[in-house]
Write a structure and sequence with these properties.
Layout lengths: L1 H20 L7 H27 L5 H26 L6 H26 L5 H31 L4 H20 L5 H45 L8 H8 L6 H29 L8 H25 L7 H12 L1
C-alpha cells in the first residue's frame, strides 16, 4: 500500500494543487478528466510499442530507454495536446500548464502501475524515485510543451509549428533524465525544487495577462457594444464595411453578420464577468439565457456560411482568445 501511494500520489496531488491555485478556474473539470484519460491512453500505446521494439524488433533495453523512449513518449503525449490547441480550448498559459500536466499525470499513473505490476517487491526508494522523479518529469515535460506552444500561438505561430520547440526541450530533458547521469533520488529532488518554481512563474505571468484581458478587454467590449447598438454605427468604419457587404451578399445574410458581431461582444462580456466572479470565489451557472445565446450564435454561423464568415473577418473585434471564451461559457 505504501509503495502504491508513493508511486501514484505525488503527481496527482501536484495536479490538484495546480487546479486549486488557479484563482480563475480556467480549465473545466471535464477537460482535466479528458486530459488524464488521453495521457493514460498514450502510456498504454507507448507500452505496446516499446514491448514490440524489445521483443520483436530485438532492440536492446538501454537503447529503448535512453534513445527511443524519450522520443516516442513525448510524441504520444504531444499528440494529446493537438486537439485542445486547435479547438482553442486553451486560453492562457495556466490553462496550458494544467492541461499539459494532466496529460503527463495520466501517462505517469499508468506507467507506474505497470512498474508496480512487474516489480511488486521493489524498495520504497525505487518508488520514491518513480513517484517524485519520473512521474513528475512526465507532468513537467508535457506542461512545458503546452505552455511553450500556447505562448508561440499567442505570437501568431500556427499550432503545429508552435508545438515543436517545447517538444524538443521535453525530449532533451527526458533523454538526460533516462541516462541517469545523476542518482534517481537526486534527480527527483531537483525536479521537486525546479517544478514549483517554474509553475509559480507560469501562474504569475498568466494571472497578470488574464487580469489585463478582463480589465482592458471588458472596457473595450462595452464601448464597442455601445457603438454597435447606437444609431451612429453606420458612420463608423465597421458600419461602412458592413454596408459595403450588401453588394456581395443578400440583405438577410448581412443582417445576420450584424447580429453575430453584436452577439460576440455580448458573449465576450459575459465570459469576462464569469471570470471576475470566480476570482471573488463565486460560481456563475450556465443558465437558459446563455444557452440560447450560444445556440443563436451557432445558428448565425451556419446561416452566414464559410464565405460570409471569411468576409466578416476584417470586422472581427474578438481575437483567438475570445474563441476560447465561448468554450469556457459552454463547458463552465
Amino acid at each position: 500500500m505504501l509503495t502504491s501511494v508513493v508511486a501514484l500520489l505525488p503527481v496527482v496531488a501536484f495536479l490538484v494543487l495546480l487546479v486549486v491555485f488557479d484563482s480563475f478556474k480556467l480549465v473545466p473539470k471535464a477537460t482535466i478528466a479528458t486530459a488524464l484519460a488521453a495521457g493514460a491512453a498514450a502510456a498504454l500505446l507507448a507500452s505496446l510499442l516499446h514491448g514490440w521494439l524489445l521483443e520483436t524488433a530485438g532492440l536492446p533495453t538501454p537503447v529503448v530507454v535512453r534513445y527511443v523512449a524519450p522520443i516516442t513518449e513525448e510524441s504520444l503525449k504531444l499528440a494529446c495536446l493537438v486537439y485542445p490547441l486547435l479547438r482553442r480550448q486553451i486560453g492562457f498559459l495556466v490553462d496550458a500548464a494544467i492541461i499539459g500536466f494532466a496529460v503527463g499525470a495520466g501517462f505517469a499513473v499508468v506507467e507506474n502501475l505497470e512498474y508496480l505490476r512487474h516489480l511488486p517487491d521493489g524498495s520504497v526508494w525505487l518508488w520514491i524515485a518513480r513517484g517524485f522523479g519520473a512521474a513528475m518529469l512526465h507532468g513537467m515535460a508535457t506542461a512545458t510543451v503546452a505552455t511553450a506552444a500556447k505562448a508561440l500561438i499567442d505570437l501568431g505561430r500556427p499550432a503545429p509549428v508552435a508545438l515543436v520547440p517545447g517538444w524538443i526541450v521535453a525530449v532533451a530533458v527526458h533523454a538526460v533524465y533516462n541516462r541517469t547521469l545523476l542518482s534517481p533520488l537526486l534527480s527527483a529532488a531537483m525536479l521537486m525544487v525546479v517544478l514549483p518554481i517554474v509553475m509559480a512563474f507560469v501562474f504569475t505571468a498568466s494571472e497578470r495577462r488574464t487580469r489585463e484581458w478582463i480589465g482592458d478587454g471588458l472596457d473595450l467590449d462595452l464601448e464597442l457594444l455601445r457603438i454597435v447598438t447606437s444609431g451612429a454605427f453606420g458612420g463608423t468604419r465597421l458600419g461602412r464595411y458592413l454596408t459595403e457587404l450588401r453588394s456581395r451578399f443578400p440583405g438577410l445574410v448581412v443582417a445576420d453578420m450584424f447580429c453575430l458581431l453584436r452577439l460576440d461582444l455580448e458573449l465576450s462580456i459575459r465570459a469576462k464577468g464569469m471570470l471576475m466572479a470566480r476570482d471573488e470565489g463565486l460560481e456563475v451557472p450556465v443558465d437558459d439565457a446563455l444557452r440560447a445565446m450560444l445556440a443563436e450564435r451557432a445558428y448565425l454561423e451556419k446561416s452566414i456560411g464559410p464565405t460570409g464568415l471569411l468576409a466578416l473577418r476584417p470586422l472581427q473585434v474578438t481575437g483567438d482568445r475570445d474563441r476560447w471564451h465561448r468554450y469556457l461559457l459552454t463547458n463552465g
